[in-house]
């Protein structure tokens, strides 16, 4: 028997296996069973004398896997009773065969409950481990002091004029003729990254060109240094100020409460 004939025999065997699996799983539902057989015969496993042997071998493996999954992991359900009322429930019957894989429910019965605090700690540990994995790249420091040091050590991108495509368009908005009839709107395109910015902050074209380059440099900094750019540092600085303010307020409140309790103790001792 040649290799082609052996492959054709293997294809017929895989097709018969898929037919038997569909007959067992979809028994009592001829519409679904016939649709499955038509799909396998005409689309998944079309074979003939001129078929590519490598492609046919891949198709045979696929059909065998489909038959195995259909036989072990697909369960048919039949409705046996309609809901008698709005609060009643329908009854369904599952077609469990001898080949169906039945899992154990011991893990569900003996499930361990945890508090919300423990769950948050577990999720936080998973997130921290993912951030520190080598595939995810360098992680951003969590504390402000470390973030400040990393911000100083970052590599600031260089803005080269040969990488820029600059154009000037007529301005719009308030400002009169000095804005609406002059081309003071500066538009910059960074060719390597495709980032485009526009600036019309002032009436001066020279000043707008400087501001446009500053805006583009900030965007490149945020792109190449995620979490460490100048804008991110300003946000972190504001958050750190709020944290210190809340810490001082709590300390003042504790000192006030401590002073009040000590005054009450002194009054009780005098009495």
Secondary structure: elements and pairs:
Layout: H1 3-25, H2 30-44, H3 53-73, E1 76-81, E2 91-95, H4 106-109, H5 116-131, H6 144-153, E3 164-169, H7 177-180, E4 185-190, E5 195-199, H8 205-224, H9 230-270
Antiparallel strand pairs: 1-2, 3-4, 4-5
Helix pairs in contact: 1-2, 1-3, 6-9
Can you walk through the features of this model?
The chain has about 270 residues and is mainly alpha-helical. Among the domains are: about 5-75; about 160-225, 2-Layer Sandwich (Double Stranded RNA Binding Domain), CATH 3.30.160.20. The protein contains nine helices and five strands, in the order αααββαααβαββαα. Strands 3-4-5 form a three-stranded antiparallel β-sheet, with helices on one face. The radius of gyration is 36 Å and the shape is flat. Residues about 130-135 have low confidence and may be disordered.
């Amino acid at each position: 028997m040649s290799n082609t004939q052996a492959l054709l025999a293997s294809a017929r065997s895989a097709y018969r296996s898929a037919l038997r699996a569909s007959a067992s799983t979809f028994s009592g539902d001829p519409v679904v069973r016939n649709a499955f057989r038509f799909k396998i015969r005409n689309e998944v496993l079309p074979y003939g004398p001129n078929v590519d042997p490598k492609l046919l071998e891949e198709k045979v493996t696929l059909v065998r896997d489909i038959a195995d999954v259909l036989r072990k992991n697909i369960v048919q359900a039949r409705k046996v009773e309609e809901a008698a009322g709005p609060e009643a429930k329908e009854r369904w019957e599952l077609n469990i065969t001898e080949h169906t894989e039945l899992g154990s429910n011991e893990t569900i019965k003996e499930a361990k409950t945890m508090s919300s605090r423990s769950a948050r700690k577990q999720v936080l540990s998973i997130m921290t481990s993912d951030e520190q994995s080598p595939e995810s790249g360098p992680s951003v420091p969590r504390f402000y002091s470390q973030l400040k040091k990393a911000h100083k050590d970052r590599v600031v991108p260089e803005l080269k004029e040969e990488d820029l495509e600059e154009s000037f368009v007529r301005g719009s908005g308030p400002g009169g003729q000095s804005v609406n009839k002059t081309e003071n709107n500066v538009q910059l395109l960074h060719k390597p990254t495709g980032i485009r910015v526009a600036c019309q902050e002032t009436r001066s074209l020279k000043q707008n060109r400087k501001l446009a380059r500053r805006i583009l440099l900030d965007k490149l900094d945020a792109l190449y240094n995620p979490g460490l750019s100048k804008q991110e540092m300003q946000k972190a600085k504001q958050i750190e100020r709020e944290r210190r303010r809340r810490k001082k307020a709590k300390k003042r409140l504790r000192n006030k409460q401590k002073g009040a309790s000590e005054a009450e103790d002194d009054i009780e001792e005098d009495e």
